[in-house]
Amino acid sequence: MILSATLSKPTKQVQEILGKEYERVKIRFKGGTDSPYFAEFFTEKQSFHKNFSEAELEEFLSENVGRSFKNCVERTEDKEITFLANKRGEVRRLEKTLTAKNGGKAITPAALDKKQGAAFGAVSALQAQNAGAAFNRSKNYIIKEGTRVPFLQALGVMTDAGKIVAAKYDKFRQINRFLELLDDVLPGVLQERSQAQNGGDENSLQAQEGGRPIEPLQILDFGSGKSYLTFAVQYFLESVKKIPCQITGVDLKEDVIKSCSDLAARLNIKNINFVCGDIAAYDGVNPDIVITLHACDVATDYALKFAVDKKAKAILSVPCCQKEINSQLGKSSNALFAPLLKHGILRERFSALMTDAVRAQLLEARGYKVQVLEFIDMEGTPKNLMIRAVLAGGALSGDQSARDLLAAFGAKQSLADLLDGAR
After folding, report:
1. 20-28: long-range pairs with CB below 8 Å, 24+
2. CA distances from 384 to 157, 233, 420, 423 (A)
3. pTM of the predicted protein model
4. In this model, does residue 183 exceed pLDDT 90?
């Protein structure tokens, strides 16, 4: 159980990650049930306070040791653990046994509380037991920590020993979160594939063992970039779920495509190929699942249009940089919403929400069951909403309401225009 932690020697990223130029963070166990940890964040002239639950503290330390701060000293009942990070984000762990001067007994929560005073509250044995259990519990990730995964090692997320590099821990969490969201829709995708292959007969699986498709699932990743998620999906489907797949990554940058193709060859992965091309002009495979992560502005709309035209069975889209409506709202004559549109940051956030609301409605109108979900925590990136859509069949409501919303602001939106055949 962690009794205290001190983070020091901030990196150049500390302001970007935590919002201020903090010089150090001190955390103490104060007792209680909901938020038993008290944290002080120090800048040069100010201090800020925050309370953490056990899980929040664990997550904060995992994400910031080696990334926001180079050094961290943690104290438990009987140990002092020091984490030291180098410039490459590699973290060294040093550990020594702690004993108190009073007869060599280990430090206990109660003893620490007595020393620090009643301001931090009393610590019961039950609280200590529960807190210790929380810290010893492994997170239930799809890709387990400690499991050697070749693509993660090649991309610098994992060491050769299977440990997650501290500076890449947020990427590791992002990958696992994406796979969780994909895993949720797989049963529906497989069922839809089964019915399509068997002429709509839901009860006939022909020669499909366990309901899995004879032909590999076709996955299309628009704007694949460095392809963390492309390789993660391949590993998850082939190695974890034992589902054959064929994955195509599409990106505009030739150097990125070459790098990813070379990596696939080095890892001897034969069911991933990478294509250099523009999403708007792409006309390749008929995908079962379309992925688009942070495709900028209207590139997301072209990816969604392609998915709808090809009747993709599932879409997982994390939009980015919704500038199109933002530029139009700045000229809006709708006086009712003037206070909302007056300030740039409010207009930017509203236009992003409006854009994704329109996209979700338009997908529903074309037979998709749509959810808008939080992909990762807001602290990781403000571009954290995912539009997840699964083909359900039949037109649902939504098309006209989306167009009415746009009309109320005199705005146009690319997906609406594309689906109308205007572009």
Report:
1. 20/48, 22/68, 24/69, 25/64, 25/69, 27/2, 27/52, 27/57, 28/3, 28/4, 28/116, 28/120
2. 21, 19, 28, 28
3. 0.66
4. yes
